[in-house]
Specification:
By secondary structure, this protein is of the alpha/beta class. The protein has 10 helices and 10 strands. A 7-stranded mixed β-sheet has the order 3-2-1-7-8-10-9, sandwiched between helices. It has a 3-stranded mixed β-sheet with strand order 4-6-5. Helix 8 links the parallel strand 7 and strand 8. Helix 3 packs across helix 4 and helix 9 packs antiparallel against helix 10. The longest helix has 14 residues.
């Protein structure tokens, strides 16, 4: 089985060179990632990686002993995942996007920076002219298969944790889920805060959740205390534009908050 370093020297994977360099080869980053995901996963648990890209989260979940279902619709990224993890019986690779309903959709490909390839034309429009997004060009479209979280659960079982990182399509991914799950994360961006608010609102329809947030690739939760939906929405709203992106973490609570206690900590299914 080739290593990420092997792929970086393979001419076929040149477009993924930047992603492979950023995602692999930094032991401190790996250790921080493992500490973060160890809050949610233990050996034998099932995790879904929605938008697996080149698989650094797959690697972390496997180091923790979790089984993984990894979705990636970009053909070259899917090929890299098969090269890196195809021989691992505890990793199931699905070359598809995830959305609100099964079918097919158009992906807007950023050839120079595949990590921001998206299924959301609104994301492409929101990035135009924004600081930090200069020079980003979505220069191709590809047609890809779409599945849903409910379909994945029906096929592979219910995960303990889902990571969703799909460049402005996170609300559509969650729309394909009709049950509360123990824990998940979804990416947010400051160019599309509305997507995050829709994610928070939709999760509230599935059950009671509490939230924390990690900025960028810090792998560090901001509050180290689970916050309410409204507190998280207010925090995202107050972030400066230069915060750019990160991940919101949601954890199922044992019961819905009592009226008038929205800002209080709620007992969570998982401990910090």
């Amino acid at each position: 089985m080739p290593s990420p370093a092997d792929l970086r020297t393979d001419p076929a994977f040149i477009p993924l060179g930047r992603s492979l360099a950023l995602c692999y080869g930094d032991p401190a980053r790996d250790a921080a990632m493992d500490r973060l995901y160890a809050r949610f996963l233990k050996p034998g648990d099932l995790a879904f990686d929605i938008g697996a890209h080149v698989g650094d989260r797959v690697a972390s979940f496997r180091r923790l002993g979790a089984r993984v279902v990894a979705l990636e619709p970009q053909p070259l990224c899917a090929r890299a995942l098969r090269a890196l993890y195809g021989a691992d019986p505890d990793v199931t690779l699905v070359e598809a996007a995830c959305g609100a309903a099964p079918g097919r959709l158009a992906m807007y490909v950023n050839t120079a920076n595949p990590t921001v390839t998206t299924a959301s034309p609104a994301f492409v429009a929101a990035a135009a002219g924004q600081p930090g997004w200069e020079g980003q060009v979505w220069d191709r479209q590809i047609d890809v298969l779409v599945t849903t979280l409910d379909e994945l659960i029906a096929t592979h079982g219910a995960p303990i944790f889902i990571k969703i990182d799909v460049e402005g399509f996170e609300d559509q991914v969650l729309a394909g889920l009709t049950r509360q799950l123990p824990a998940l994360s979804f990416e947010f961006t400051t160019i599309q805060r509305d997507v995050s608010y829709r994610c928070l609102d939709y999760l509230a329809t599935l059950g009671a959740y509490r939230f924390d947030i990690a900025l960028g690739e810090s792998q560090q939760l901001t509050f180290e205390r689970w916050r309410s939906k409204q507190e998280m929405a207010d925090h995202i709203r107050a972030l400066p534009q230069v915060a750019n992106a990160g991940d919101v973490y949601a954890i199922a609570t044992a019961q819905a908050p009592e009226p008038g206690t929205e800002s209080d900590d709620e007992t969570a299914t998982f401990s910090m």
